[in-house]
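Tutorial, part two.
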Amino acid sequence: MTRDTTEGMLEEVIQSVAVHLTPFGFARHGSVLRIEQQGNGGLLEFQRSTKSSRDGLLFTVNLGIVCGALLDSPSPALERARTIDAHIRQRIGMLLPGRPDKWWEITQSTDAGLLAKELSELIVRDAVPYIMGLLSTTAIIALWQSGQSPGLTGGQRARLLSRLLVADRKREA
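Running the prediction step on this input gives:
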């Protein structure tokens, strides 16, 4: 089996998932599926593992929310942001029972269609509602005010919340 074969199968999986997310407003840009609403972005990003080999490609799905009001000039524009740029980020496994760090493997024996179906169902059932529920600045503020900060330290959460509250007050004035 070659790396081209596993990459081709992953491409097939991403394309199938993208088709299932189109009705929700997500658009595909490479390995990232994104939706933009209310000046914020929701991201699903397929991440390949460095532990992948010629015989098997390991990958996971990262989730992210980018708050447009917090983007600085050195940050990428909302339409080019990746999960590494997100203000809220976590892996899809954190939405599953037991919160495992979930990785999938594509090998020669993988049924790409079955894997795409499994991922599409998981993403539509768990990831889409999670992302859609955090696309408003009000929801981001509420999450951070609750003390939760997926993907951030407490200090980062406090600094970003302070900036966001100031920006929100200016917008309302």
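Residues 3-172 form one domain. In part three we will examine how such features are distributed along the chain.
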